[in-house]
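Slide 14.
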Amino acid sequence: MLSVLPMFSTQMIPVQLRIALGALVAMLVTPMLPTVPADGISIWLLVKLIFMEVSMGLLLGFVCRFVFYALEIAGGFIATEMGITLPSEFNQLVSGPTMAPGLLLYWIAMMTMLSLDLHHWMIVGFQKSYALVPFGGAHLNEALLLDLVARSGKVFVIALQIAAPVMAVSFLVTLVFAVLGRAVPQMNVFSESFPVRTLLGLTSLGLTCTFMGQHIANYLRRLPEDMLNVARLAGVGS
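Slide 15: predicted structure.
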């Protein structure tokens, strides 16, 4: 799970530290779990159990990344509406180029996550998931697949909600310059609208950063509960 969480999967954290964090979490969680009888377990059954537990950890971490995927999409929407898609920054948090608005939203989400102490609550949710999905009891069922598809569909909705103010301002600028283009045919509407679109887009982005942060915090607070819901669905039939 720690290998795919946004906070711990970055290149800024060395691999040795990530392995040490995983071992530390395992050492702290293991004493609170029921003992698993290991008598008579064959090597193939052990490999199967390890694969199931690794897959379950990756699934829980993947669910927690949905909000950050939405922020990347929202950053792309904002950059497109403001006309700043060409300059991109290397985002060390995702190990790839990201538009400047997406990088800003990503850092807002990371700082919000730390300030709300959600990284600790996610570890608590990880420990409680073993009560819902016992060791080796995860199952791939229809309810789990439907829930994952529904969560994937919400990523685009969250991105639209976050980028809505900038998109609304861009729409108004496009509408105004469309009217000016009809009134003054000699005007090059395409080139003249770019500075206004960028200036008003940056202004609206700066004025709505607080509201974006509150919106992001509302979704981040749901991450521990989302982990438990996915674990509950994966444990159906166990």
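Speaker note: The two ends are 21 Å apart (CA to CA).
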